[in-house]
Specification:
Largest sheet: 6 strands, antiparallel
Number of strands: 23
Order of helices and strands: EEHEEEEEEEEEEEEEEEEEEEEE
Number of helices: 1
Distance between the termini: 30 Å
Structural class: mainly beta
């Protein structure tokens, strides 16, 4: 049973923890790459725009509010459908939760990846401008070919598969909190970090939100040389609590905690704002009783 929404005094910190460099392809090159989502030919050599000073996040076209560029804005819905799982790992208690990465920006989150080696990729983020012209920026991101086991919590075996996913797209953390919901200490972290990024549910329809999915399911072909991942404006990439790795191990824990989900925890993507990528659901353990929620905030700071 959910208790009354608490008055929160969580100490926060900015999520910018490392420099981030973006590289712009010239307008002529970007124009040449317009067309089908899967493009052909090697990507041309790029010219870097420079790095920020150490410890200072580099400005991007999104944070500089460059005119006519439509940028994504990722948020994380508060963790829902919390379940205490005592079956997946005998002897352990896993706190499961549904997660949802949402795009509330003015443009899509679109990533175009070009394979440079057996396990390496060059990843470019596409930002759209006037007349839907695409501009490509090199970002410090990578793809991983991830195996997903076929066993589903509460559903049994449904078939295993492997997919290309964005590496370190999200993070699940468990923080201890005091009676006033102030964050005290990072206690545990979950294994879920890689996401496909897709249009699964249209949660926030608007004039900028396409009526049909633009970015389909994850690519399963291990031999591809290029891939496109993304989430359109108003759409969400949702993973239910039954899905593999949708949990944090809470074995032996007692007290009050914040179940924290973070979109783009390493700030590798260009967005309108990085200060709203975090959501929290407050829970009592070992009962699993939900104490409250909040979303679109910054990460709690360890004292």
């Amino acid at each position: 049973m959910r208790g009354p929404r608490p008055t929160l005094r969580v100490r926060l910190r900015p999520l910018h923890t490392r420099p981030r460099a973006a590289v712009l392809i010239t307008t002529a090159i970007a124009t040449a790459l317009l067309g089908a989502p899967s493009w052909s030919g090697a990507l041309p050599r790029l010219a870097a725009t420079g790095d920020a000073a150490p410890g200072t996040p580099a400005p991007t076209p999104c944070t500089l509010q460059r005119p006519r560029l439509q940028c994504p804005d990722l948020t994380m819905s508060a963790p829902t459908a919390l379940h205490l799982d005592r079956r997946t790992r005998p002897g352990s208690i896993l706190l499961r939760a549904t997660s949802s990465i949402n795009n509330r920006g003015s443009g899509p989150l679109e990533l175009r990846a070009h394979r440079t080696g057996r396990h390496s990729w060059a990843v470019y983020q596409a930002l759209y401008g006037k007349r839907h012209k695409r501009h490509l920026f090199r970002i410090a991101a990578g793809l991983v070919y991830k195996h997903i086991p076929g066993n589903r919590y509460e559903h049994g075996y449904v078939g295993s598969a492997s997919y290309w996913k964005l590496r370190h797209a999200a993070a699940f953390e468990l923080w201890s909190i005091d009676v006033n919901f102030r964050a005290l200490q990072l206690v545990r972290a979950g294994p879920k970090v890689d996401y496909c990024l897709r249009d699964l549910i249209r949660r926030h329809p608007s004039g900028r939100s396409p009526g049909a999915a633009v970015y389909p399911a994850c690519n399963e072909n291990p031999s591809i040389r290029r891939d496109v991942l993304g989430t359109s404006v108003g759409w969400s990439d949702v993973y239910p609590y039954e899905y593999p790795e949708q949990w944090i191990d809470v074995t032996g824990l007692r007290g009050r905690f914040a179940y924290v989900q973070i979109a783009d925890p390493e700030n590798r993507l260009m967005e309108t704002s990085d200060a709203n990528n975090v959501s929290e659901t407050y829970v009592a353990l070992p009962s699993g009783r939900v104490l409250g929620r909040r979303a679109a905030v910054s990460a709690p700071q360890q004292p």
